[in-house]
Design brief:
With 118 residues, this protein is mainly α. Helices cover 68% and strands 0% of the residues.
Length: 118
C-alpha cells in the first residue's frame, strides 16, 4: 500500500479493505450494545436513517438495465439492513479466520511443495 509506483486506485482499495477489517468488529460491537441497552435503542433508528440517506443518491441515479427504471422502494428501504447483516458476516469471517489460523493452526501459509494439493 505504501510502496512507490503503485496505482492510486490500488492504494485506495487496500486502504478501504484495511478500514473495513478494523471497523467491522467495532460496528458489530456497537450494534450489539445498541440492541442490548434499552436506553440506546433509539440510536438504531438514527443509524438506519443515516445509512438510508447515504443510499438515497445512488438509488435515484442508478437505473435498471433495459427498462430505465429505478429499483423498487423496498430495495432502498432494506439496503441499510443488508449492510448491517453484511457487517456481521464479515466480522464472523474474520473471527473464523483468526480461529483457524492461530488457534487450531489448520489454516497456515503455504511454504513448500509438501503443502500443495495436487
Amino acid at each position: 500500500m505504501v510502496r512507490g509506483g503503485s496505482p492510486v486506485r490500488l492504494r485506495y482499495e487496500m486502504a478501504y479493505n484495511l478500514y473495513t477489517a478494523i471497523s467491522d468488529p467495532l460496528k458489530t460491537w456497537s450494534m450489539v450494545v445498541i440492541a442490548l441497552v434499552p436506553s440506546l435503542r433509539w440510536w438504531a433508528v438514527v443509524l438506519y436513517f443515516t445509512y438510508l440517506a447515504f443510499e438515497l443518491y445512488p438509488w435515484m441515479v442508478i437505473r435498471t438495465p433495459g427498462s430505465g427504471r429505478r429499483a423498487p422502494i423496498a430495495v432502498l428501504l432494506f439496503y441499510p439492513i443488508y449492510g448491517a447483516i453484511n457487517t456481521l458476516v464479515r466480522t464472523l469471517a474474520v473471527l473464523a479466520w483468526f480461529w483457524y489460523r492461530f488457534v487450531t493452526g489448520s489454516m497456515r501459509p503455504r511454504r513448500g511443495p509438501g503443502d500443495r494439493i495436487a
